[in-house]
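Hi,

I'm pasting everything inline rather than attaching a file, because the server keeps stripping attachments. The sequence lines come first, and each chain or strand is labelled.
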Amino acid sequence: MQRSSAGPLGGLRLWVGLALVAGLVGLVRVAADLVGLLAVGAVLGYLLSPVVDRLERRGMSRTAAAALVLGAALGVVALAAVLAVPAVTEQATALRARWQSGDLVQLVAEAEAALASRLPGVAAADLGLRAAVERALARDTTPLIAYVPSAFEAVGNAVLVPFVLFGVLRDGPDVRRRLLATVPNRYFEFAMNVAFKADDHLGGYLRGQATIAVLVGAATALGLALAGVDSYLVLGLVTGLANVVPYVGFAVSAGLAVVVSVLTSGAMHQVVWVLVVFGVVQLVENVVFQPWITGRNVSMPAVLVLLAILVGGRVAGVVGMALAVPVAAVFKVLVVETVTNLRRYHL
Amino acid sequence: MQSLWKTLVRRDADAEEETLLAGVPLFADLSQREMDTVQRLLHRRDYAAGEVIFQQGEPGLGMYIIAQGTVSIQSEPSGRELVQLTDGHFFGEIALLNEVIRTATARAATDCTLLSLFQPDLLGLLDRSPKLGVKVLLALARLVGLRLVEVSDEVQSLARECEALRAAAEARDATV
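And the predicted assembly:
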């Protein structure tokens, strides 16, 4: 049971709250990527907490249920890695062999020449495509030892997310109660109402987006397999994950699929099919999945989504872009519910 | 093992609360374990004398049980006191069933400590432990049913009183 009072501790609590907010803002400025990872763990925890609730309903303790869900989530990630890593390695080896054979340099040179012939007054060498590709390859010759510090950092980050995930899964409801306990008496019912409704809408929205990402990934993998593109599983997985960043994710994964299809087949004939697959999946997502799955939940205006992605990318890179839409949805729901409820409560 | 641990670490305040809750019809039939679960859902809040607990006309979200102190239920805008409630009494329970508009203002008459249970927490309980949730909900339904019978009796008695007054007025008019 949470205890709260409007006594002399009230002022102290305010200062503690302000210090916490200041600390959080400072942390975002100093280590935005770390905050991003914390947020990734928190969002994943929020998405998976209904599963923990369900297990708890079947008589399992909250700790055991959280551990089981975390184990299952790690198992899925491990399985995805097992599936993806050999395919990616194989792909990279094939790419290197093709590069060494000189086919690709020829392909890039031909594309460069074709492009230059259509642009008046531009010579093939002016475009610098071939030079850029060669420079990119040369840059990749850094000794492996230079990657060790960032590998340690990556391992640290990989450990951080499951920790946060477990904490949110197990103690999420308790943390929410503790936060609500700090609200002054006069605003308590109001805060409770906003938190409840925001949770209802937001939970539906985030879980809907996660479901859509899975469906889009699966549909893309299936489409690319039918089109005969190699590495369709990896491309499907990447498309599903990239779908978390609306518009940008889709464009990037479509571009990646085109590049992979050209590199693996050594010709342009698959490109049309790849574009058709992405076009159809995008159409189905917008016409069927979005209205069907997120219809009753939060709808986010396209301008707000794009703005959120740009700001997220500026603050915390790729992680920031992935978190931009959920974070914007949190703010939108909180603002809408606060404004709606302020009209109903005489505050 | 759990009960031994509980006996060792239990605070007097927890035991007092349990006794208090056992006296509330909603929780009267609960086992020790169920009572512990319900206790974890309650919010314990302290109010200073004169502080508003909820305001007439605002949406209601839950019920309050008085652990200690006195609460005045008042009608707005006159501020007329309808009733004074004290230790062990509870109010606002209809809001557990539906988000209704509060029909009166509740104000702390003295410094008081209240335990509150809110609809989202009750819905969460129904989701996680349906058996316990239904038990509480059934007790709430019985309580509301009882109140309905009481109100219905009162309406009938008022109707009879009105009828008697009308008959008396008609008889007086006839004699004039």
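Chain A touches chain B through 27 residues (CB under 8 Å).

If the labels don't parse on your end, tell me and I'll reformat.
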